[in-house]
Write a structure and sequence with these properties.
alpha+beta; Chalcone isomerase; five-stranded antiparallel sheet
């Protein structure tokens, strides 16, 4: 009897573990890298309640958008999320040649990939990048950027 109960308990625990792991949705490592934020151009700021988001991109990306051209491969776009005056996290989009092929067509955002990073620059595996991709698909005509028009209007120095 003990062996049967022990076997059932072990099976139940294994099943619970599989269900628990299956329910967790975490970031996946992508090709997106943490850029040198100091080399990006700050082109707009968005405030959402207590959150301030500074949005930055490479100079080449801004120039391409202003000319009506596609944003070049190698581009980083960064959203720096500030809370209580401190960096809370970074949301990074990076474009690379052929990177869209890493995903099923229904999840693809051209050749853009996404990643959340902690303030220290390490990947934040608690954030769900698939959710970001799915939301940004609605901006396909604007290089998958919600701030495309801000970038287009920005005056480079």
């Amino acid at each position: 009897m003990k062996k049967i109960i022990g076997g059932i308990s072990g099976a139940a625990l294994a099943g619970l573990t599989v269900v628990s792991v299956g329910m967790q949705v975490h970031a996946e490592p992508t090709r997106t890298t943490m850029p040198d934020i100091g080399k990006l151009v700050h082109y707009t700021t968005v405030e959402r309640g207590e959150v301030t988001e500074h949005i930055m991109a490479t100079r080449e990306a801004i120039e391409a958008v202003k000319r009506g051209e596609p944003i070049p491969n190698g581009t980083h776009v960064a959203l720096v999320d500030y809370r209580d005056g401190k960096v809370f996290r970074y949301f990074i989009m990076e474009k690379g040649e052929g990177w869209g092929q890493d995903y099923d067509e229904n999840r693809r955002t051209a050749d853009w990939q996404f990643q959340w990073f902690k303030p220290d620059g390490t990947i934040n595996m608690d954030e769900n990048t698939e959710r970001c991709q799915r939301c940004h698909t609605s901006r396909s005509g604007r290089e998958f950027l919600y701030t495309y028009n801000d970038m287009r209007r920005f005056e480079l120095e």
